[in-house]
Specification:
Length: 448
């Protein structure tokens, strides 16, 4: 078994090239756009791959920064990660040598905490950085940690790191979450696959990415089943084997492009889109008067009504799946600026996902932030080009949508945030006729 070697580790933010999107808005988008593989599925499969020493192969992996960060984090602990072709990754973790996940990885990406369950379960110990730390605000992982303790691990928290040990195997048990957590469910599930005995996880997240992970784990020889919509049961195995998997399409990317088609008054078709995973969002589009038609894995969006004021206000509320995803709330908010009447937005999952809406006001929107979880959007307001700074991934994509719908030129700083989760976003928009360019403007710290 490999050594866990704690050492004093100094965090130095890495420098990234600072880039801007320049967008000349007001062009209706037309054509077809292929939907990439799901970020939130692919990242968890990479974590699952370290449950075995055998080689795992993934296709339809999105070419995005978060995937590159996860690949790099795995390489740093001694895992072999090959990238033999675009969108294809192979992972072999026969020789994990360093059971330590540093702050550098955690600060770049919260999903690095997904390594806790598999490393602990397979190797019996791990030292892993708190992805929240004190540096990037309150982003708790208490549910993950408690789930591991319930499975029999001992976990201490010192100097920003969790020191987790589980001599022998983890023990199957009942894990009761106080509320639904996507990665909490997934971490518990991964840990339980190698535990001794039967684990019941409840309430378990119902996101399609969790089910895709179950499909992959089953191919690895794990015994994992969703026995009720909110319950996952796992019977632990001594060993798992290597497996191959084609990652499901990204429903959030699909929703983002759907809004782009609508707010620019265009006509676009999303190909390879996960229509079945998008019911709540497609329902909002329907209520807003956007014509959206699903046929197999194609979704046709007709936004031509926008100019005639055909879009209607809608009240939206985010919720765990099958509710409206929080990740699609910000693109949907851009759509609601183009709807007649007053819409209300209730962001029920996170506390920091409405603040960016004030940037939309500077582009001509009329939005009132009532508190951290509620806003009203009065429409329809024409949008005009502006300069804006991207604060996070989903808000960044949404600023691009607003700029595409706006009259005139916009300069959107902080393009690297969007690269975290959208494959070739500017090329995909350009292929739909958008006037968009990505230009270099200097270097900044990656943690900014
Ligand atoms: C995942 C997704 C993210 C999505 C979110 C909700 C990935 C990589 N990320 O994040 O894109 O927006 O689901 O659909 O899959 N919480 C705690 N303690 C914990 C864990 C979570 O209090 O230990 C809270 C969170 O602050 C939040 C709520 O629980 O308020 C739900 O978060 P969770 O479902 O865990 O989100 P993630 O899995 O981190």
């Amino acid at each position: 078994m490999a050594d866990a070697r704690p050492f004093h580790w100094e965090f130095t933010p890495e420098e990234v090239t600072r880039e801007v999107f320049k967008i000349e808005g007001g062009v209706p988008l037309h054509g077809e756009v292929p939907i990439s593989g799901s970020k939130n599925a692919a990242l968890k499969m990479f974590a699952a791959a370290i449950l075995t020493g055998e080689r795992c192969r993934f296709t339809n992996v999105p070419e995005i920064e978060d995937v590159r960060v996860m690949a790099e984090t795995l390489r740093d602990i001694g895992v072999v990660v090959d990238h033999p072709a675009p969108n294809v990754y192979e992972i072999a973790s026969g020789d994990v040598e360093w059971l330590f996940v540093p702050l550098e990885a955690a600060a770049k990406m919260r999903a690095s905490f997904m390594l806790l369950g598999p490393l602990l379960s397979r190797f019996g110990r791990v030292i892993i950085s708190n992805p929240g730390g004190d540096r990037i605000g309150r982003r708790p992982v208490d549910l993950h940690v408690e789930a591991m303790r319930t499975l029999g691990a001992t976990i201490e928290y010192r100097n920003g790191y969790y020191f987790a040990t589980a001599p022998g195997r983890l023990r199957g048990t009942e894990i009761r979450f106080p509320f639904v957590s996507v990665m909490g469910t997934e971490n518990a599930m991964l840990a339980a696959t190698l535990a001794d005995g039967h684990t019941v996880i409840r309430p378990a997240a119902q996101e399609p990415e969790v089910d895709d992970l179950i499909v992959f784990l089953t191919k690895m020889g794990a015994e994992v089943q969703r026995t009720y919509p909110d319950t996952i049961e796992v019977v632990g195995k001594r060993r798992l084997r290597g497996a191959e998997h084609h990652v499901i399409p990204d429903r959030i990317e699909a929703g983002t492009f759907a809004v782009a088609g609508a707010v620019t008054g265009g006509q676009i078709t999303l190909t390879g889109a996960p229509c079945d995973h998008m019911t709540a969002f497609l329902d909002v589009l329907g209520r807003a008067g956007v014509l959206a038609t699903c046929a197999g894995d194609r979704i046709a969006i007709d936004g031509r009504g926008v100019a005639d004021g055909a879009f209607r206000a809608v009240d939206i509320e985010t919720a765990p799946y099958p509710g409206l995803p929080t990740d699609i709330q910000s693109p949907t908010s851009v759509l609601l600026t183009q709807a007649q009447g007053t819409s209300t937005v209730h962001e029920a999952i996170f506390e920091d996902r409405l603040e960016w809406l004030t940037d939309l006001n500077r582009m001509g929107a009329s939005i009132d932030l009532l508190d951290k979880h509620h806003a009203t959007i009065k429409g329809r307001t024409p949008l005009h080009g502006a300069e804006a700074e991207i604060g996070d991934l989903r808000a960044g994509a949404s600023l691009i949508l607003a700029a595409l719908a706006a009259d005139g030129e916009s300069t959107i700083h902080g393009a690297h945030h969007v690269e975290r989760g959208y494959e070739n976003i500017e090329r995909k928009f350009a292929d739909l006729g958008a006037r968009i360019a990505r230009l270099e403007e200097g270097t900044v710290s990656s943690s900014s």
